[in-house]
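User: Can you predict the 3D structure for this chain?
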Amino acid sequence: MESKLNKKKILVIGIVAVIVICIIVAIIVINKQKEEKIDVYINTNYFITKIQRILNEEENYDNKTVLISGYIHYDESGRIFIARNGITSSGKKAFGLMLDGDFEKFSEGKWVKVKGKIQYLVSDYTTGEKVPYIHVLTINEAKEQPDDRNVIN
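Assistant: Here is the predicted structure, written as structure tokens:
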């Protein structure tokens, strides 16, 4: 009689262990899918339009995961950007987003693909104006590089 009770206890413990393992695996898979989800893709199509939306619509883009391709550009103060050139009335101009985080630095003009989180930084405390930047999660040299860096939109 006692051995039947022990077998039942072992069986119940085994079933509970399997259920717990299944729940843990499900949680890991769900979290992995959340990490891999890309909310915003920015490439050649409508590059400048998408950058302008990010600049002007913080409520729609804050903390969203972005995948963007472009070339590395350093401004005069040494800040690093991912950019593409746009044509303006005054000629060519680099349009892009500032990059932040602990990542390998690439040389000026190197084409890269960046995955990161769009964040906003207060740039003027008197007005509360914020500027967007990408907190880099991954950065890799782009396999394909456009022949022309210019985008018109």
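The chain has a mean pLDDT of 83. The two ends are 81 Å apart (CA to CA).
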